[in-house]
Amino acid sequence: MTVRRALVAALLLAALAAGSRAFPHTGGSTGYASIDIHGASVRYQLTLWPAALPPAVAEDLESARAGAAPSRDRLLGFVRDKVTLVAQGRRCAAGPGSLLPARPGVESVTLVVDFRCADAVRDLVIRDDLFDVLGADYHTLARIVGPGRTTQFAFSPETRETRVRPGGGPDGHATASFVRLGIGHILSGWDHLLFLLGLLLPGGGLLALLKIITAFTLAHSVTLSLAVLDVVALPDRIVEAVIALSIAAVAAETLFLRPTVTRRWIVSFCFGLVHGFGFSSALREIGLPSGGLVLALFGFNAGVELGQALVVGVAVPALLLLRDRGWEQHLIRCSSMALLLVGLVLFVERAFL
User: Fold this and answer.
1) pLDDT per residue as tens digits for the range 271-295
2) Are β-strands 124-128 and 149-155 bridged in parallel, bridged antiparallel, or unpaired?
């Protein structure tokens, strides 16, 4: 009866994974904003993709892209209402706005709104409340360009506001926003977490677990950096499929090959390289200059590691507690069976559907 329940639970997990249409590495839906400061005017450009947004907004984006004026005006109204710019304590006025011409084969839509401030911008507060319209799992990755300075910021429901001083020094607040983004990304990237859980399930001593975690961290940090810096890039479809396959592979090894825990760090490192490409999708399209990109990359990667450490800090004591109660082998077998089914279903979905 216990095995039957485990199989039912595994099948439910697999069905849930197959039914999910979200992209697990974006941490929800993402918009890319370019904010250009020129004297007393600020141009705000926001690029959105319909597929990951709420149905009503996605429909407006598709209609606006096809030339429908009411949908275009509604979307531009969202930007004028939900994006607030305040220069030297006075709110900047938003213009009517426009859409950039649609490009063949490109699904994204770019909205443009010009803001006019009372005088030349020296101190600018930017507030983004688009989450109220685009959903709580939405975030905006922004590039902010001003005289003598380019910076970046990750807007989210928890970090809706930033202050920019053109010509000022490094902005630690901006880097901290990417740390928070990295933490949220790993905690919402459940396929990364399932792979990590699959690696940890067979147990082992403290040294073996440290080698597994360190190998995964080093590997995905290397490929995350290479991908975001455009040194190496792989198609997202291939990356997503291999990540799903990695879940199935570690589960199958546990079930059928009696893995040597002391050598599992090699598996962790090899598949960690692929997971790094998956992490990079949240940053790769922002188009930051190299200096700003390095700071964003550092903050994002630090956030991923902090989130991962939090998960490991909870999972390992829980596994040790179950081992002490004599449930270890049963837990490992049932959990690995569920992970194998989930990984296979996700692989088929991502590779062929």
Assistant:
1) 889 888 877 766 665 555 555 667 7
2) unpaired
